[in-house]
Design brief:
293 residues; alpha/beta; Glucose Oxidase, domain 1; 2 domains; 9-stranded mixed beta sheet; two-stranded antiparallel sheet; 19% helix
């Protein structure tokens, strides 16, 4: 298997394609802000947030609430407070995949070994805490708009459709960009009970489309689905886009984006800002990406 970005930023590198975002990209991206408007591209997180069946849903516990005071909890000088805890998978709702999330042939991105590196204690290499805050140019490639509707489940987006979406928007992916692809999958889940959401049939990009983005030098690829790539996978493959982008190119994936309302604004190029939670050894992180224009 090709290892297209290994060694590009040194043998010890754990950051990957986000190395492509430097001061030049940050300054250029801030120049895209014209109206001073900020749009969140994140799903709300709650017990109703759907996740695949192999992961637990979010659990939210109140550690201190108004009921404690009603039951006689001490009030000091009139001061009262609420406190709570959350237990959840790191790959829930809108989230980013770290470079330790997938590997093959017992090698992570940049040749870091899988054996002994990923354990019950977390990831010793390429954990999500190694990903820096992301401030760069964002591009919205609205493939669903090309069809005037959300794409069918299982639909595979090829290079030609990504190019058509880019041409329609008047943009071209370049080094350091965060490219967000709208498929309409999340829109098709609106109103469904969490347990009825099918994560095994999704529209998404194919390997050739993924390589087109990688070879353009993009730093991040995101979509409004859960897998970025089309599911079911082509025969004889398992998460081929994940393997090529994360493992071979060091490109983190941003999944579960909320793009419908933002797409309606007609802003294909914008300042993109996001910062993963620095969970040491984590394979991913819930995240709130922002589009600023």
């Amino acid at each position: 298997m090709s290892r297209d970005a290994w060694g590009r930023w040194g043998e010890a590198d754990e950051v990957g394609a986000l190395n492509l975002v430097g001061t030049r990209q940050v300054l250029a991206a801030t120049g895209l802000v014209r109206q001073g408007r900020v749009v969140s591209l994140a799903q709300p997180l709650s017990k109703k947030t759907p996740v695949p069946s192999n992961r637990t849903g979010l659990l939210h516990f109140m550690d201190r609430d108004g009921g404690d005071y009603a039951a006689g909890a001490r009030v000091a000088n009139g001061f009262q407070f609420a406190d709570d805890s959350v237990v959840m998978p790191l790959h829930i709702g809108t989230h980013i995949d770290a470079l330790c999330h997938v590997w093959t042939e017992d090698q992570l991105y940049n040749g870091h070994p899988g054996s002994g590196t990923i354990s019950t204690h977390g990831a010793k290499k390429c954990g999500v805490e190694k990903l820096p805050p992301i401030v760069t140019r964002g591009l919205l490639l609205d493939v669903a708009a090309l069809h005037d509707a959300p794409l069918p489940f299982g639909y595979s987006i090829g290079v030609d459709e990504l190019k058509a979406a880019a041409s329609r928007a008047g943009v071209e992916p370049a080094s350091g960009d965060a490219v967000l692809v709208r498929t309409g999958w999340l829109e098709n889940q609106a109103g469904k009970p969490a347990h009825t959401v099918d994560f095994n049939e999704e529209p998404g990009i194919d390997v050739a489309a993924a390589l087109w983005l990688a070879e353009a030098g993009v730093a991040l690829v995101g979509a409004d689905n859960y897998a970025i790539e089309a599911m079911p996978f082509p025969a004889g493959t398992t998460f081929p886009v994940h393997q090529r982008l994360i493992r071979d190119y060091g490109i983190p994936l941003l999944e579960g984006l909320v793009l419908q309302d933002f797409a309606a604004l007609g802003v294909p190029e914008f300042l993109f800002v996001a910062a993963p939670l620095p969970i040491v050894g984590g394979t991913g992180s819930p995240i709130t990406p922002l589009a600023i224009y």
